[in-house]
Amino acid sequence: MIRIVIVDDQQLMRDGLQTILSLKQEIEVVGVASDGAEAVEVAKQTRPDLVLMDIRMPGVDGVQGTRMIREQLPETKVLILTTFNDSELIFNALDEGASGYLLKDMPADTIVQAILTVHNGGVVLPPDLTAQVVAELKRARNGASLQEQNGGKWQLLKELPEDLTEREYEVLRQLGYGLSNREIADRLVITEGTVKNHVSNIINKLGLRDRTQAAIFAVRHGITTFE
């Protein structure tokens, strides 16, 4: 059973999501909140596995809420919900430790599958988001860095580290598609344990925090492509 907290400033959306997700056998909604600050307090009380977080809210928004939850409850994962593609906010939320994002108007089964993916250690990066990342990359390579464009959080490296092995490079590319270790293992015909070791090496060699940052790194440096 995956225990989740739903965060949205609109009561109709909170109630709707709670009703839909409560019908799913594998999910238990243990709390709701109307902004990021309240989300932190509810999460402290309920200790959920995952927080489903709206990105745009008055007061403490989803980016700030994500940072606070990841700092204070590092075992709790965050999945961002939005009604539109807001690249800058999404970039920032991912940088603060969110494990992906979804559009609110996606089918309930898609949201449930995304929750399961994140709970199992995966990353959720819809193709429309990755397309925007690639577009930002192309603009950034003309001179300005992503760090300059996005409030100091995203720095475009001029060259990739050379100490990644060929297999690590391929695993990194698959991370950019948001695949789990098992899915990567099946695709590359190697064991899940081997993938886990490669992911750890990649994170350490690139100086990243987790697999989410590795996935975004792969996309924004053109290692993972969606053409």
What would your notes on this structure say?
This protein is of the alpha/beta class and 227 residues long. It has two domains: 2-126, Rossmann fold (3-Layer(aba) Sandwich), CATH 3.40.50.2300; 166-221, Winged helix-like DNA-binding domain superfamily/Winged helix DNA-binding domain (Arc Repressor Mutant, subunit A), CATH 1.10.10.10. Helix content is 51%, strand content 12%. It has helices spanning 11-22, 36-46, 62-72, 87-95, 108-119, 127-140, 146-149, 166-175, 181-188, 192-206, 211-220; strands at residues 2-7, 27-33, 50-54, 77-82, 101-103. A five-stranded parallel beta sheet has the order 2-1-3-4-5, with helices on both faces. The chain is globular. The termini are far apart. Residues 143-158 have low confidence and may be disordered. InterPro entries: CheY-like_superfamily, NreC/VraR/RcsB-like_REC, Sig_transdc_resp-reg_C-effctor, Sig_transdc_resp-reg_receiver, Tscrpt_reg_LuxR_C, WalR-like. The modification 4-aspartylphosphate is found at residue 54. It comes from Effusibacillus lacus. Residues 3-119 form the Response regulatory domain. Residues 157-222 form the HTH luxR-type domain.
In short:
This protein has 227 residues and is α/β, with parallel strands linked by helices.
Give the key terms.
227 residues, Rossmann fold, alpha/beta, Arc Repressor Mutant, subunit A, transcription regulation, DNA-binding response regulator, DNA-binding
